[in-house]
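step: validate -> pass
step: tokenize input -> pass
step: predict -> running
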Amino acid sequence: MLSAQSRISYSNTHLLCVQGDYTNVVDLQLEWPEWVDGHDVTPLQQFIAKHLFGVEATTKQSALQLFVSGYGVPMEGKFKTIPDDNKFCYVTCKLLETGYQQGRFISYRLSRTVEPGKDSQFKSDTLNLLITYDLLKAEIKEMKQIIKVGKLSGAGYSKPEAVQQLLANASIDLPQQCGIELVNACLIDGNRILVDGNCVETYDDYDAGNVTVNITPFSSMFTGEVAQWLFNNDTKKMLKQLVPTNVEPMPQSVDSINNEPVYRSCDNGPVFPGGTAAMRNFLAKNIVYPKLEGENGVSGKVIVSFVVTKTGQIVQPCVVQQVSPLIDGEAVRVVGLMPKWTPGVIGGKPVNVLVSLPISFHL
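step: predict -> pass
step: emit ->
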């Protein structure tokens, strides 16, 4: 079994950027892979930076600096005059982990929307992409590199169970007679596939001589025997390949916050209000077991690292030992709900301290 050799950093950022007379609202929800199961994931970071942000970079910090600078300077304080609504542009970027199997792969959804006002200098834009990153080969895989797409096209729906699962697991109610076009796929784990598709409905108005086509996007999932039936040969090999037990040591994480050091040991460590027993009660009260993971028997221990600042705030949460994207995300969510801690102390003075917190999820 691999030790805790991952670091997935979680962040939510809301920025108001000013560029001359233009105002741009930038929202970022990111689950950035810094290190995964002892693997340097530079190719994955480069892919994310290029496709999600349109920049050449390998770190989250450099990617965000380049991306945000294209929308102006982040604003602090209040507007001196009322900005023109027509010159606003709303930009939302999300990088969400969608799948993981220890030592073999990690999957992501990359999404971006750009919604400009009528006088904005930016154009409307959307991105929605699912990918799986093969940790052993250091390769990005999209739908055609993961499943045998031909089995799910036209008359290729020869397996009734595939149709049943697609309909039953869809994010919307799919009409029985609609056309289905799959556009994205990634691995959730070794037994589940996440897919995106379009429901295509055609309506003929013979009197008017018009044909109306409605296209509705949806997500769904294939599981069990159907998923195994869809895997291509490369995916089957990846899921069977031996995972190395000797992994590279993970580079040291955060060293400073606001130019002040972050310590890994101290005279008196940070303390949750009320102590360890109170923290256990807090976790038990606030954790919501992800329904889908409960239904599929997914359990395990997540380790979340974070910094307790000298003022007791929790910042920079990262998952350093993963279970699944849904369980990992729930652990980070609950950590984010915690009240201020009593900060760690060195020489009688409060300091920033890195904390690692194991959180168990068991059915």
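step: describe -> The chain has a mean pLDDT of 91.
step: cleanup -> pass
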